[in-house]
# Entry
Amino acid sequence: MEQLSNINPEAAQYVTDAGIERWARAYSPRKRYNIMSTNIPEAMNNAVKECKELPITGVIDYIRGDLQCWFHDRRIAALKLTTQLTTAADVAIGVKDDEARYMRIYPITFYTFHVKDGGLDGTVDLTTKTCSCKEFDVDQLPCAHALGCIRLRGFSFVDYCSPYYSSAFLVATYSGEIHPLGQPSEWLVLEDIASKIVHPPVGRRGPGRPKKNRTPSFGEEVTQRSCTTCHRVGHNSHTCTYPKSSRPSSGMGSTTGIGEASGSHN
# Structure
């Protein structure tokens, strides 16, 4: 906020007047996830890129088939977990536990502590699962301050994690089954739906081919992958159409030279 005030005081005042609880997770009265991005729709958009030119029923069935495979694969992976927490939560706990080893803990009561970490410090209450650093409150995973206190009392850190981070919840997430719809003649369609006539969209398509790639966000760096065969950008080795004669040499010499240098044999 100090940096923002130095750059643009009016902008700093604007976000303050809007309410800190609207954009700062530590002050939000509700539990908000820690990522706000368009990664999920972008990933889905890329996954269905091959079927976009199909009729709408074909696109829907393509997406259904992808979801069927994804649910099956993730269900199998979740059932193979040997830890009580998911892999991501287990790794996060491990990183925080390493930080907690270097903190000094001063008990206040049996369940409350003052933890010094050389910087922010923290006041932990294990009964309410809170810490003054707010990380424990918001993420619902023990912060480094809390993990030090949990270790001091000999408690299990799993008991202080939200059940949503458990491997059992992950299995339940992908427990649903997605089945094929079968032939259209077998579908049970309500009469008021079947009687509706769907007209083509109003308006004309613009000139040129429809755009397939998404528009980059403001400030996003766009990297172009190059072909590993001809080293040109815009395609990969599987779709490379350049003749072999026009492809640049790798600089390692011909196979004949390699054979002669290493001692060719039949």
Q: What stands out?
A: Residues 250-266 have pLDDT under 50 and may be disordered. The beta strands are 104-107, 112-116, 122-125, 130-131. The radius of gyration is 28 Å.
